[in-house]
Write a structure and sequence with these properties.
The protein has three domains: 3-198, Up-down Bundle (Ferritin); 206-497, Vaccinia Virus protein VP39 (Rossmann fold), CATH 3.40.50.150; 510-544. The protein is α/β, with parallel strands linked by helices. It has a nine-stranded mixed beta sheet. Strands 9-10 form a two-stranded antiparallel sheet. It has helices at residues 3-20, 26-54, 71-78, 83-94, 104-112, 118-133, 156-173, 181-198, 200-203, 210-225, 247-255, 272-284, 355-364, 386-396, 460-470, 483-488, 510-537, 541-544; strands at 235-240, 262-269, 292-296, 318-323, 366-377, 400-405, 418-424, 431-436, 442-444, 447-449, 478-482. Keywords: Methyltransferase, Restriction system, S-adenosyl-L-methionine, Transferase. InterPro entries: D12N6_MeTrfase_N, DNA_Adenine_Mtase, DNA_methylase_A-5, DNA_methylase_N6_adenine_CS, Restrct_endonuc_T1M, SAM-dependent_MTases_sf, T1MK-like_N_sf.
Length: 545
């Protein structure tokens, strides 16, 4: 399936969402739509492997299926003695098991026939997937999908009818498209982006636009792909400590060319709805349940207890860290955090803006030869107080590798320009690379967009990555600034201090300009004479005077 076809699938599903949600809030309908798409992927993937495993035993089109019965249901009923062995083998192949009555093919058939038990079957299916399907339980995965909500209808019958309509429309919308992991995964991300765009600034925080996500991902995998830049060709652990819907982690996986290049993806997310989106997103993109760990908890208070034993936290480190944390989040740090190993050598970020707290959290868990890329507001580059002290130590210790400025209006959640800070624990050359990419973008309606070199457009992303990887200097775009110069500027990292974007205007040819002025004056005098003559013919000479 081509990228164009995958985008067409996403648009087809968005059209369904736009048609069906009616008066329902976009955020509420998002949870239904994406959950059903997730169930469709799990089911399709499961049935594909079931057909491969059973081969000739899998019921064909001539099997005497009962009304509403699916082929796998028929096989289960005919071979009860083989079910346990079958499910064990399926667990080994796809890492999960779904009972036939909970597969999408059966759910869709119930929706098509307006079956009165669809709502109850869906509730049972969601509970089954959360608690029984996977080797690792995914409790609460569908907790935000309220099948009893009055937004679906006033009573059980109307709710059931609404669910039948939604599922039938989704099934029709994807009927003409491939539904493999890549296709549905791309469609899932397309829908996330569309819901983020239409949900307002607050709701859009969970999504990092793909172009920006790609920049961070390509930066952190550079060392793993270029043997001249570092020793490793494999990343054991990758972390996004404010992972939202998980798109950044998936982009790192994509840049590493799949799971063979990465051991485990780790994420942390405080918002429960977004936490569930991230877990679904991982599975829907074909990431096995033992190849990722997404944790629901507060990053700033270091709530990692259901991923790692607290006594082992000092041993945890990551080869690559990417993050797009909430900008200038207000927080109230406890006094004990001043002694926290993450902040103890630097100080606590101010209550009005936790930006530096997020940065230090990630940096603390970065491996010695790892790379961290984090998106932050420009204020972290120049604000005073404790933030300046944090900058001083990071700069003096050689940990800030690059500062990259981007244009405004790239995010759904804010219109402000942002920057990317690249950090390393290994001591870098005695300079910081500054890149001013703030003038390279395309305007798309209300948002700006970084171009990717497609359809004859410039490659804004490639320009940034190539400049960063080569640490290349370019007039009015990039410069390697010595640490000594940064110290002279009181550790201020504001990009315009170091990159002059002023372009001289073309010199003015005064003789040509004066000649043009005289020509215009002569034309005006000639027009005045003609107007006077017209007024005289009309007998309006008094008006002329």
């Amino acid at each position: 399936m081509t990228a164009k076809d995958r985008q067409a699938l996403g648009k087809a599903l968005w059209a369904v969402a736009d048609e069906l949600r009616g008066s329902m809030n976009a955020d509420d309908f998002r949870d239904y739509m994406l959950s059903f798409l997730f169930l469709r992927y799990l089911s399709g993937n499961y049935e594909k492997h079931a057909r491969d495993l059973l081969k000739g035993e899998y019921p064909g089109p001539d099997a005497p299926l009962a009304t509403g019965q699916t082929p796998l249901q028929y096989w289960y009923e005919k071979n009860p003695q083989d079910v346990a062995t079958f499910e064990t083998e399926m667990n080994n192949r796809v890492h999960y098991v779904i009972k036939p009555e909970y597969l999408w093919s059966h759910i869709a058939e119930m929706a098509r026939t307006q079956h009165g038990e669809l709502l109850n079957t869906l509730q049972q299916a969601f509970k089954h997937i959360e608690e029984d399907s996977f080797r690792n339980t995914f409790r609460g995965l569908f907790s935000e999908v309220n099948l009893a909500s009055d937004k679906l209808g006033k009573d059980h019958r109307t709710k059931n009818e609404m669910l039948c309509t939604i599922i039938s429309k989704i099934n029709e919308g994807i009927a003409d498209f491939s539904t493999d992991a890549d296709s549905l995964g791309d469609a899932y991300e397309y829908l996330i982006a569309q819901f983020a765009a239409g949900s307002g600034k607050k709701a859009g925080e969970f999504y990092t636009p793909q172009a920006i996500s790609t920049i961070l991902a390509r930066i952190v995998v550079l060392d793993s792909q270029d043997p001249t830049r570092g020793p490793r060709q494999y990343m054991r652990r990758v972390l996004d400590f404010a992972c939202g819907s998980g798109s950044l982690l998936l982009n790192v996986l994509r840049q590493m060319k799949g799971s063979k290049g990465i051991g485990t993806l780790y994420g942390q997310e405080l918002n429960i709805t977004t936490y569930n989106l991230a877990r679904m997103n991982m599975l829907l993109h074909g990431v096995k349940d033992d190849a990722f760990k997404i944790f629901h908890g507060n990053t700033l208070t270091n709530e990692w207890t259901d991923i790692f034993d607290p006594t082992d936290l000092k041993k945890i480190e990551f080869d690559a860290i990417v993050a797009n944390p909430p900008f200038s989040l207000k927080w109230t740090p406890r006094e004990a955090l001043a002694q926290d190993p993450r902040f103890g050598n630097y100080g606590l970020a101010p209550k009005k803006a936790a930006d530096m707290a997020f940065l230090l959290h990630g940096f603390h868990y970065l491996r010695d030869n790892g790379t961290m890329a984090i998106i932050l507001p420009h204020g972290v580059l120049f604000r005073g107080g404790v933030e300046e002290r944090i900058r001083r130590k990071l700069i003096d210790d050689g940990h800030i590798d690059a500062v990259i400025g981007l244009s405004p209006k790239l995010f759904f959640s804010t219109g402000i320009p942002v920057c990317i800070l690249v950090l390393k624990k290994c001591v870098r050359p005695d300079d910081v690379l500054f890149i001013d990419a703030s003038r390279e973008f395309a305007k798309d309606k209300k948002q700006n967009r970084l171009r990717m070199g497609e359809n004859g457009e410039p490659d804004d992303i490639g320009h940034i990555i190539d400049t960063y990887s080569q640490r290349r200097e370019e007039a009015r775009y990039s410069r390697r600034v010595p640490i000594a110069e940064i110290r002279q500027n009181d550790y201020n990292l504001n990009i315009p201090r170091y990159i002059d974007t002023y372009e001289e205007e073309a010199p003015i040819d005064l003789p040509t300009v004066m000649h043009r002025i005289h020509e215009l004056e002569a034309r005006r005098a000639d027009l005045d004479r003609k107007i006077d003559a017209y007024f005289a013919e009309l007998g309006l000479t008094d008006l002329v005077k």
